[in-house]
Amino acid sequence: MPGQIARRLAAVLRGSGSVLLEAGAWEGAEVRMNVVPAAWEGSREGHGLLRGRRVRVAAVGRGASAVPR
């Protein structure tokens, strides 16, 4: 996405209180989230029903969001 369009989109989103989620890398992102450890729950010894998945998400940003969480 060209820089001018990205800046205009960011301004519209801020004004409306909205959030844009991108599945992939985007240079204009204020916060980047990554799944660090992840584990499936429910299967035993390689078989059975999966009941869920636990993940930990790390968020790193810039500006007001610069503190890693």
Q: Can you walk through the features of this model?
A:
- The chain is of the alpha+beta class and 69 residues long.
- It has one helix at 3-16; strands spanning 31-41, 52-61.
- It has a two-stranded antiparallel ribbon.
The tally of strands reads 2
Kindly report how far apart the N and C termini lie.
27 Å
Strands across the major sheet, in which order? 1-2
Largest sheet: 2 strands, antiparallel
From the alpha-carbon coordinates, what is the Rg to the nearest angstrom?
17 Å
Q: What is the count of helical runs? A: 1
H/E series, N to C? Answer: HEE
**Helix percentage:** 10-25%
Provide mean pLDDT, rounded: 80
In short:
With 69 residues, the protein is an alpha+beta fold. Helices cover 20% and strands 30% of the residues. The protein has a two-stranded antiparallel ribbon.
